[in-house]
Design goal:
The chain has 130 residues and is mostly helical. It is built from six helices and no strands. Helix 1 runs antiparallel to helix 2. InterPro entries: Homeodomain-like_sf, HTH_CenpB_DNA-bd_dom, HTH_Psq.
């Protein structure tokens, strides 16, 4: 089972094309329609980036934890380990669920099992060395 998939995009435009198109639109050198045709960036994409003010493209789902929250979770897991609790996958998954409950973080974890998912655990362990 592969850990993560390669990010793909069907379009033929690059990040620099997007940036150049947005610059031309902001400086009123081109309309959004003309910039879309010139740089081959979809017009809707240009309008979305103008509306949000963001140029960074993010693919996939929004992460459950921010970087600081994930560091805090990692610290609490290490504290459990230092107290003598064995770090089994189930313990880490349950601790992640309890962390979300404690700080009222919206999450996709199972309420029935009161634990984070196995894929989340694999990705968490790949990001952080425990």
């Amino acid at each position: 089972m592969e850990l993560s998939r390669e990010k793909k995009r069907c379009s033929g435009w690059s990040q620099s094309d997007l940036q150049n198109a947005l610059d031309d639109i902001k400086n009123k050198r081109l309309s959004d329609r003309a910039a879309s045709l010139k740089y081959k960036v979809p017009r809707r994409t240009l309008r979305n980036h103008i509306k949000t003010g963001s140029v960074v493209k993010r693919m996939g789902r929004k992460p459950v934890f921010t970087d600081s929250q994930e560091k805090q979770l990692l610290q609490s897991i290490k504290e459990l380990s230092n107290m003598g609790m064995p770090l089994t996958p189930k313990v880490i998954r349950e601790e992640a669920y309890l962390f979300c409950e404690r700080y009222k973080i919206k999450n996709p974890f199972s309420d029935k099992k009161s634990a984070a998912g196995k894929k989340w655990l694999n990705n968490f362990l790949a990001r952080n060395r425990i």
